Amino acid sequence: MSSTARAQRQAPRPQLQLPRLRAVAPISRVPRLPFLLLTIAAIVAAVFGLVALNVSVNQQSFRISELEEQTRVAEARWTALQADVDRLKAPARIAKAGAAARLTPAGRPRVVAWPGSRGRNVASPGAASSPAAPGAGLSGGDDQSGWTAGDPFPLKRYLAEP
Amino acid sequence: MAQAKGGSRKRAPQRRRPPPRRPPRRRRRVNGRRRLLALLILSLLAFLAITGRLIVLQVFDAGSLDQAAARQRLTVIDLPATRGRIYDRNLDDLAISIPARAIWADPRLVKDKKRTAARLARALGVPRKALAQRLDSRGRFVYLARRIPRTRGDAVQAMNLPGIFVEVDVARRYPSGTVASQVLGFVDVEGHGQAGIEQQYDGLLRGHPGKVQLERDPRGRTIPQGRRSLEPAEPGTDLVLTIDQRLQYVTEQALARAVHDHRARAGSVVVMSPRTGEILAMANVPTFDPNQVGASRPETRRNRAVEEVFEPGSTNKTITAAAALEHGVVTPKTETIVPDSLPLCPEKTFHDSHWHAPELMTFADIVAKSSNVGTIMTARQLGRDRLYQAEVDFGYGRRSGVDLPGESPGILRPVSSWYCTDLGTNAIGQGVAVTVLQMASVYGTVANNGVLQPPTLLRGMVDAHGRVAKADRKPGRRVLSAHTARSLSRILEGVVMDGGTGTVAALDDWQVAGKTGTARKPDTRHGGYLPGAYVGSFIGFAPAKRPAVVVAVVIDQPSRGFYGGTVAAPVFKEVTASALRRLGVVPTLPAKAVR
Questions:
Q1: How far is it, in rounded angstroms, from Cα B4 to Cα B324?
Q2: ipTM greater than 0.85, yes or no?
Q3: Are B486 and B326 in contact (CB under 8 A)?
Q4: Is B89–A160 a contact, with Cβ atoms under 8 angstroms apart?
Q5: Of B28, B234, B319, B475, which is most buried, counting CB atoms within 10 Å of its CB?
Q6: What is the pTM of this model?
C-alpha cells in the first residue's frame, strides 16, 4: 500500500446534509371512474346533440322537398282538371249535348225598352227579354253622336275582364 | 518454444477456430449514418414530390378538378318553361300546356331489348316493332315517346327498366279541337310555334326555361344539405285574342254547311268589329285539328282568309263607288242610261251578267243591281289614276299587318302598267287580287264612317298579377269622308232590299248593308280564267246605321250555284244574326223587334 492511499484513507470524510423527515397524512386515492363516465357522457351527449341537430335540419330539408313535390303534383293535377273543364266547355261538345237533349237554338231576341232609355227603334215596354241579348235596351238606335262620345260599342260591356 | 507450440497443437486438434471478429465499432457507425442520410434524402425527395403534387393539385389544377368533382356530384335538371296560354276574348282557353312525360332510352344499357320493347309497347300503346327498331339504334340517346300523359310516364318509371328513362315534358292542347285552328296554329315536337298565333307570338308564349342544380350521392339520392341552386323557369306570357270562341264555332259550322251544300272547294269567313278592327271570328274550310297535326293535310292548315287571294268581283264595286262619290263624280241619285254591254277597248267589250235593254238607272241602282256596265261607265268618268289610288288607300297591294304569319299583300298592278282594259276590270273587281281580310277591312272602313281601322287579333296580354294589359293598337286612317261613307252605306242597304242582288242576306231584326260578288276564277297555270269556276262572296255590315260587325263570306268554286247572292249571302245572314245576338245589339227594325 502506498503512502498516498493511506493518506487518503485517514482524511476526514465530509458530512452529508440529509433532509429532515416529518410525518404526513396518507395520500387518499381519488376514484377515476366517475370522472371517466362523466367525460364519456359529455362527449356522447355532444355527439348525440350534434347528430340530432343535423337530423332535425335534414328533416326540414326532406319536408321541404316533399312539400315541393306535393305542390308540383297538385299543380299538374290542377292543369289536367282545367284541361278537362276546357274540353267540357268546348262549343262543339255543348252543341252536341244540346242536340242530344233536343234543345233548339235561341230564337229572335226580345227587348224591353225602359222608360227614359236613349235607345230608338226598340220594342215597347212589356215585351219579354231574351237571355240571348245581354245588355239589350242600353244601346242601339241610330244616334250617330255616339261615335265620338265615350265608347258606345257593345263589346265593351260584353268583354270579360278578370 | 517451437516444440511447445507444436505440442499444444497436438493436444487440442479439435479446437474450433474463433468466430470472426465483428467489424470495428467505428465502421458500423459510419454505415448507419449513411443509411440515415440516404433515408432522409429519400424522405425529403418524397416529401418534395408530395408537396409538388399537392401544389399542382391544390393550386394549378384546383379549378378544373373542382369542376370535375362538381360534375360528379352535381346534377342539373332542366325545368321547361310552361308555354303561355291563349285565351279567347272571354278568357276561355283556346290553347293550354299541360304536364306530360317523355320516355327515352340509352340502347347500350338496355339488357333485354325484345322484352323491354314488349313491355313498353303495352304501357305506351306504341307498336312493339317501332320500339324495337329504336332500341336497336347505335346511339346513346333515343326518344321512345314524347308528350305522353303523366300517368303513363309514371307507370313506365315504376317498371324500373334498365336503360329506360323518364323525363318531364310539356304537351300543348287545344281543348276546342278544330275551333279557330288556323288562327291558333300549332307547335312542333320541341314546342315551338309553327303556324298562326303560336308562330307569330312564339317569343312571348315560349318563356324561358330554368334549371335546378342538386348535389347527389353515388346512389343518385339528393344530399339534403348539399349544394343546391335554383333558377326558376319563367312561364310564357298568356295572350288574350279578340276571337269569340262561341261565335267562331257558329261561323265555322255555317261555313262548313255552305261549303258542303254547294259542293265548294273551300270557304272563308271573317267577322270583324269595324270600330276597333278586332277580329271576332275567322273561319276557313277545310280545317284541321291542331291536337292531331300529323293526321292533317298541309292545305287544311292554311289560313286562307289571310294567306290566299281571290279576285273580289262585284264586291270591289264598293271601292269604285266610294271613289266616285268622294270625288263628286256621281251622287247616289245621279241617273245614267245603262246598256247591257260596253266596248271599253278595241279588243274588249264588257257585259252585264244578264241581257237587258238600255235602262235609266240611278247610281244607287247600279250598285244595288251590280251592273258591270254602269260601274265601268262611272269608273271612266273617275279615271284610272283615282280608281287606282282608291284601291291603294283601301289597303290593296299591301299587308294589313294582322297578327298572323304568311299574310299575302294581294296583287295590285301599278297604274303605270295598266292595259286599256284594266280600268274596266279593276272597277268590277277582276284583274286584282285581295285577301278576305282585306275585303273585310274595305267594308269596315265604310262602316266606320270612312276610317280604316287596322285589323287585329291580339286583345291583350295577361301580366304576372293575372290582369289583362291591353295590347297597343295602331291608329286608324281616314280613307273616306264621313259623308261619303254614310252615302255609300245607304246605297249598300239597297243591295239587300227588293230588286237588289243580295236579298237573301237581309235580316229580320237588323238593317243590313252589303254587296254581293261573283268573280271568275283565274287559271294560274295557263292564264285567263277557268271555265265554269267562280268565287261567290257577300260582304256587309249590320246594323246598317250603326254597324257593330262586318262579315265577309267567300265561297271558293261552288258547284251547286255560284252567285254570291245565293251561296255566300245565307252564310252572311246566319253569322251576322248570331254575332249581333251574341253582342247584345238591339234590333233596329221596330216592326220585328217584338214577336
A1: 169
A2: no
A3: no
A4: yes
A5: B319
A6: 0.77
